[in-house]
Amino acid sequence: MSKNKTGMKKNLTNYGDTGFSIFLRKAFIKGLGYSDDMLDKKIIGITNTFSDYNPCHGNVPDLIKSAKAGILANG
């Protein structure tokens, strides 16, 4: 078993039972409206650096729309 835990098992609070800790974590996340299918997917963050102050980033909104569409199209 790998010592580097990832996903739902990363940085768990220790209640003496790993299964219980994961149960609590999933309960809170499901309370936010996430399903089991959503929890099995990779998480991808998209940041937006657009600003009217800097015209160099004028194309960022279009890039973000394209990135979002590509990510959603691939599940």
Taking pLDDT < 50 over at least 5 consecutive residues as the criterion, the unreliable ranges are: none
Number of strands: 0
End-to-end distance? 29 Å
The secondary-structure element order is HHH
Strand portion, in percent?
under 5%
Give the proportion of residues in helices: 40-55%
Give the total of domains. Answer: 2
Characterize the biggest β-sheet: none
Number of helices: 3
Query: What global shape is seen?
Result: elongated
* Rounded Rg: 18 Å
- Structural class by sheet pairing and helices: mainly alpha
The average pLDDT value, as a whole number, equals 83
Task: Give a verbal description of the structure.
It is built from 3 helices and no strands. The protein is mainly α and 75 residues long. It has 2 domains: 1-41, no CATH class; 44-75, no CATH class.
Keywords:
3 helices; mainly alpha; 75 residues; 44% helix
The gist of it:
This protein has 75 residues and is mostly helical. It has 3 helices and no strands. It has 2 domains: 1-41, no CATH class; 44-75, no CATH class.
